[in-house]
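If you are new to this repository, start here. Below is one unmodified record pulled from the training split, so you can see the exact layout before writing a loader.
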Amino acid sequence: MSARGLPRRLFLAGSFTLPATFVSGQGAPSLSAREAHDAVRTGTVLLLDLRTPEEWRDTGLPQGAIALDAETSGLEVRLAGLRLDHPGKRIALIDRSGGLSSSLRDKLAGRGWREIVAVRGGMLGPGGWLAERLPVTAHP
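And here is the target side for that same chain:
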């Protein structure tokens, strides 16, 4: 094979792997708050709330969500444990407005995680959980 053909083949091979690793930006996987709620109800998604205990007390948790304090160390380790405990389920990340969830999703996708999405609008943003009047549960 000539050296000239190698870069083109590498480019073509790489272009087929991009969707599997979730490219950040417009095409990055996400769910609306309503889609996330419906997926939690049907058991196809594990919803993780990445806010702080103070935020959970202020607004409650999305119904069916697992609370993970975003400000404590070891967040990725705890996420990996939940992923192992729930094989085959998509993981949906929700935060205050969607920024942390999106950046963490992109970071994990870059490390080979599949089936991880961010909830658009988070809890408080436009189109978010509370704006859609979706159910919440009180946090002690």
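Two things worth knowing about this chain: Helices lie at 5-17, 33-42, 53-59, 75-85, 99-110. Residues 56 and 139 are 6 Å apart (CA to CA).
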